[in-house]
Amino acid sequence: MENEKLFELMEKMYADLKSSQEKIYSEMQKGFKDVNGRIDGLEKRIEGLEDKVSGLEKEVKKINFVLENDVKPKINVLFEGYNSNREETERKLEEVIKEQKETKEILTLSIKSMEEDIKQLNEKMDKVEKVTIKNTYDVEYLKLTK
Fold this sequence. Notes:
The protein has 146 residues and is mainly alpha-helical. The chain has one helix spanning 2-145. The protein is rod-shaped and about 200 Å long.
C-alpha cells in the first residue's frame, strides 16, 4: 500500500510537472511568437529604410551627375566670362586713365601758354593805355595851342 501511495504521489508529481512543463512550453512558444513578430516588424522596417536609402542614393547620384555635367561647367564658363570681363574692364580703365593724363598734360600746357599770352596782352594793353593817355594829352595840348 505504501508503494501504491508512493506510486500515486509520483504519478501526481509527474502530472504536475508535465502540466507545468506544458504551461512553460506554451508560454515560451507564445513569447517566441511575440519576439518573432517583433523581429518580422523590424525586418520590414529595415527593408523600408533600405529602400529609402537606396532611393536617396539614386537621388544623390542624379544630383552629383547634374552638378558634375551641368552646373560645374556652367560655373566654369561664368567664371571665365567674369575674368574676361574683368580683364577687359581693367584694360579699358587703364586706357581711360592714360588718355586723361595726356589730356591733363595738354590742358596744363595750354593753360600755361594762355597765361603767358594773357600776360603779354596785359603788358601790351598797359603800353597801349599809356600811349593812349599820352596821345590824349597831346591832342588836348594841340587843341589848346591852336
